[in-house]
Every structure is written in C-alpha cells, then in structure tokens.
Amino acid sequence: MIDDVLGDRALELADVTVRRDGKQILHGVSFSVGAGEHWALLGPNGAGKSTILGLCGALTHPTSGVVRVLGAQLGRVELAALRRSIGHVNPRHPLRSPLTVREVVLTGVTGSIELPLRWKPTPAQLAHVDDLLAALGLTGKAEQRWPTLSQGERGRTLIARALVARPRLLLLDEPSTGLDVAAREQLLETIDGLDTTHPEIASILVTHHLEELPSTTTHAVLIANGRVVAAGPAGEVVTSRNVTAAFEHPIDVEHRAGRWSARARRAAAPDSGPDCAEPISAG
After folding, report:
1. Sequence-separated (6 or more) residues with CB below 8 Å from residue 71
2. C-alpha angle 160/187/237, rounded to 5°?
3. Which stretches of the chain are assigned E, i.e. beta strand?
C-alpha cells in the first residue's frame, strides 16, 4: 500500500548507487523533494540525470541505498500502483497512431500509449480532460491530430496527459527539447501556471540549459559524473561556482526576474580599460 506522504516528502533518495554492466553510474546520491516543491535536475550529458529520473519514476531500482517515492520504498511496493501517481512528460513520446489531442490526453487515464480496444472513458473522465485542455489553452486543438501539431502544442498536450490521472509527482524530461524560443517560453509559462492550478504537485524538471528553468523553480540538484555537486534551494545551488564545477568549464550565471542564464566566462584582457564590461557572476 502506498502511504499518502513520507512526512512532507514526495521523494527521497538516500545514499543511492546504481551499477550497470560492471560500471558505477551513481555514487551515493542523496536529496529529498518536499510536497509542492519544484526541483531542477541539472548536469552535463552523461552525468546520470536520466538514471536518477528513472528511479524517481519507479522505473528502475537502485543497486544500493534507499529510494522512497510518495512514501513507498522501491523494492517493497507494487510498482504499477505507484506509477499511477506519477506523471511523466517526455517530448520523445513514442506515439505512432494519429490520435487527436483529446485522445492523447485520455491515454494518461489508461496509462498506455494507444487507447485500449473497446475501452470507453466515463463522462467524468471526459469532463476532466476538457478542463485540462481549457487550462492549457488547447480547447481549440482538441480534435486536431498528433502529426499536425507543432512541437509546442505537443508539449502542452503531454503535460495535460501527465496531469489527467491526478498525480502527486510530475517528472518533466527535458520538456523544451526541439522548441524554438517562442514555443519554449509558452511552454515554460504553462509549467509556471501549474504552481497555481496544481499547488499540491511536486515536480522535477531535467535539463542541461539554465535558460529552460521555469521561474517557479524552488530547488535544484546539480549532478556531475554520477555525484551530487550541490542540492538545495535554487538560489543557493544554481551559482557560477557550482555550475562551473558541475560542467567543468568556467561559466558565469545570472539570475534576473526569476529566470537564469549562463555564458562562458571570458578571460580578462591584459590591458583592459574602463570600457571593458565586467563578467556577470552570481557565485
């Protein structure tokens, strides 16, 4: 049976290691996510972010250490029931059939990619889907088919699909992948809006681009080489010093109007004069 909460924790990883094919991927990873908190999982390619997200989604088990998701310890719970309480947004959604937007969202009710044969949603389920489509600005797209949607429209559809089962934990796996600047900003506005429409949901967003962090991000964990570089409140973690350490390259981080940006640190010119701009640094 899944407990309602573990104290006020939606997720806890304690001294977690993962080994595959004789290679250790995670080394003593520890952090915990509180109910209603919005975490960013940051790090370079190959750092272990996807492995951690698999643990958070109850898709894989640790080699050692403890993972508790929504109060349930992996290895001691029926996984199918636990997964129904976790929403997962993956822009690489493997849909092949030309389902409509409404039908794609309904697959979140059944926990499938395609709609099951002979399955019919209840009037209450249909009403909930339409409420989500309205909240995400998709009412006018409800009957459009998946292949005709823009990447931004697909992203919002997948968020609605993740929310339709009323999850308590939302995982967003690089949701801005493939989006242009305008579509990215629209998607981030949608994610920011969840803090108001679904304040009880805890979330983890995976990215390696600071510009893709929503302004509602409350906490962050920086990963490098399978180890935690820093974890905690976002303002204390996402700094020039920590990002430089995680990405092993001198990076200057700026936080302005609730959003982050990053650029390579420029070496000072030997004879820099008063007209030379100082690099921005938050660390």
Report:
1. 2, 3, 4, 5, 6, 9
2. 110
3. 9-20, 23-34, 38-42, 64-69, 72-73, 86-89, 169-173, 202-207, 219-224, 227-233, 251-256, 259-264
**Which tokens belong to 181?**
């600047």
Q: Of 230, 198, 248, give the one whose Cα is nearest residue 36.
A: 198
Q: Name the pTM for this structure.
A: 0.86
DSSP bridge pairs for 264: 251
- The DSSP-derived string for 247-268 is HTS-EEEEEETTEEEEEEPPPP
* Residue pLDDT, tens place only, 152-195: 899 999 999 999 999 999 999 999 888 889 999 999 999 999 99
Q: What is the pLDDT of residues 217-262, one digit of tens each?
A: 999 999 999 999 999 999 999 999 999 999 999 999 999 999 999 9
Q: Please name the residue that has the structure tokens 């982050």.
A: 260
Q: Are 25 and 218 in contact (CB under 8 A)?
A: no
Identify the bridge partners of residue 88 per DSSP, sorted by sequence position: 171
Burial classification of residue 205, based on how many CB atoms lie within 10 Å of its CB (0-12 exposed, 13-18 middle, 19 or more buried) = buried
Among the CATH numbers 3.40.50.2300, 3.40.50.300, 3.30.420.40, 1.10.1040.10, which is that of 1-85+168-263+276-283?
Answer: 3.40.50.300
